[in-house]
Design a protein that fits this description.
By secondary structure, this protein is mainly β. The protein has four domains: about 180 residues, Immunoglobulins (Immunoglobulin-like); about 290 residues, Transglutaminase-like (Coagulation Factor XIII, Chain A, domain 2, Alpha-Beta Complex); about 110 residues, Sandwich (Immunoglobulin-like); about 90 residues, Immunoglobulin-like, CATH 2.60.40.10. The protein has twelve helices and 40 strands. Strand 29 and strand 30 form a beta hairpin. The protein is elongated, with a radius of gyration of 30 Å. The N terminus is likely disordered. It is an enzyme of class 2 (transferase). This is protein-glutamine gamma-glutamyltransferase. One of its GO terms (molecular function) is metal ion binding. Belongs to the transglutaminase superfamily. Transglutaminase family.
Length: about 725
Amino acid sequence: MSFNNVIGRISLANSNSQESNILDEFSDAWKPRGPLDGAAGLNVVSFDMCVEDNRKKHYTDKYKNSSLIVRRNKEFNIIINLNRDFNAEQDMVQLEFMIGSSPNAKKSTYINVSIGKMKQNGRWKCRVVETKANAVTVGITPDASCIIGRFRIFIAVITDLGKQRTPRNPNTDFYVLFNPWDTEDQVYMDNEEDRQEYVMNDVGTIFNGDYKDITSRSWNFGQFEEGILDACLLIMDNGKVPLMYRGNVIEVVRQGSALLNAQDDKGVLVGNWSGDYSDGTAPTAWTGSPEIMLKYVNEGYEPVRFAQCWVFSGVMNTFSRCLGIPARVITTYHSAVDNTGNLKTDIVVDKDGNWDQSRTKDSIWNFHIWNEVYMKRPDLLEKFSGWQAIDCTPQETSDGLYRCGPASVNAIKEGEVSYPFDAKFVFAEINSDVIYYKADMYGNLKIIRVDTVYVGKLILTQKKDSSDYEDITTNYKYPEGSLKEREIMQFAEQHGAPSRDYLTPPESGVDIELQADAIKIGENLQLTLNIKNQTKQTCTLSAVITGCVVYYTGISSKTFMSEEKSATVEASTTESLTIDVTASEYMPYLVDKSNLLFVVYGQVEESDTSLSTMRVVSLLPPELTMKMTGSPQIGKELVVSVEFLNPYNFTMKDVQLRVDGPGLIPTKLKKYSQILPGASVMYRLLLIPQSLGKKVLMACLDCPQLRQVTNKLEFEVVQDPNTE
């Protein structure tokens, strides 16, 4: 969407797109536009923004945008063509840069620099680079903390006859972005590989599944795609983010984490975990951010339906990288939703040992996905700069809005939970204890087990220059059970985290573990219950295993089994029990992006002690096949086919197939009314690569009966050897 097409459509006091009458902005001493009369007058005939050369130097040539795009604190050149030779001792030329509807020097929305006699510079710098006859090349350097957005430029000439500026020309507007290449910028990164990955990479891998069965999907960040830069600015305009705050990356990402969800401000995305997406698009069906962001700004800022955590995170990554902020997607396995911040997640079993869903109010997300952004934190100690956690999935309000962060990852690791913003909430997500309770016949609860290592089991991000993952758990927490980890927990309690003053149960000397592998949807499953007797006497264990279908958020849908088992285990030995689960037991109860959760309650007869554990089993979707015909060369045709076979005995209805690839094609959407059991569908598309380098083409098939069937093709586009 063109920025100019929306000017005037919204009327906001805090808007980059809104303009006022330029003649009303300054003193009446300013003359009307147009050339000055008189032979002695100096006139600006034209000026060249040197778009192509400047964009290459500023690492912005990938943006599909015809305007000049530059980065803070880095010089760019403009060639000013005058009606006569420039005389630096007699002539004076002013360059004015304006943003928003009410340019004001005190608010840094009006900047004025000059060359020639009475040369003046402010926070922006200006110098004469070269003079050739009547052409003057001027170097402009925006200051390292200037506002991010789209600026208007005017060139004014001061002569004895008066002062006059060039006419308004939208074609000379230019954008200023954050600059991670510059040491003075708040988002500076000192490693080029990091900058290429966390700023310039326009496609990524988002990890999900379970920590023992890690799965993934590709995501089109598409920060350089046509209309996305304007969309980022319009999102801030619609959210009424003051222009004067847009030079501070802390404010930009904090506002962004609120504006990307629609929970309280008609932001970009509507969260939905109900399983009913009939009046929108299922969260599992999206393949990338551009489709979502352009839909939002093109359709009158109506929140896009629907999203879950990976969609929020994918769009936040696009928003950040597009503006020049280093960002990455983070997946945390076994993330506690601790709205009370009490560092406890309570699991209740009833008097018979079955999981009591009505009394279990807390939940542990099988995985949760947020972002990290890289920045200096001048508001904190220097050691708390670097990666900051940011989360726009609406879970908890912060300063009255549904948002989270930026919270220093280093501060979270050290238990410094009192620092802004929302460090306490993030700390609880990865450090809560799981408390198992047994309810007696009167409803009274007794703690039977405390698990201090279940939550925050594994934290991942995408490895640089790879589609594999990098384990960054130690960035957030010290090793579980270590002396340092216990010290940090105590320190956090002294600085704002709740005290863990609950009574831990006596040790039984017996440990239980539930094992199972991930299975494909529709397959049978075998559970293994390992019973380890660490005592010096024989023990007898009776156990109840409850199985239910759960959303990935840990919220239960339906209990489908409850089975009793018992075993006698000799001293210092381990016995294993197997439990067979058939597909016919769980298939009727599957829900959106569901998993199977098994909770075990055990009773040791000899010591009259109880113990409990749980295990999530991931359900993997069937395969989506992608094949390429042709050689990936610039300007050469490629044919890609996407094929799917329905392996189930039910009909898949209202099927959507999306194919996406940044720098290759806009999002393609193909709909099928149904796919019968045993039937297959094939979709073919033609590609003609236009640029060199690594490319990723991704596909996602989605319907109410089967969610998130995905695949991707990775390939390198090379030059045609027959071309010179």
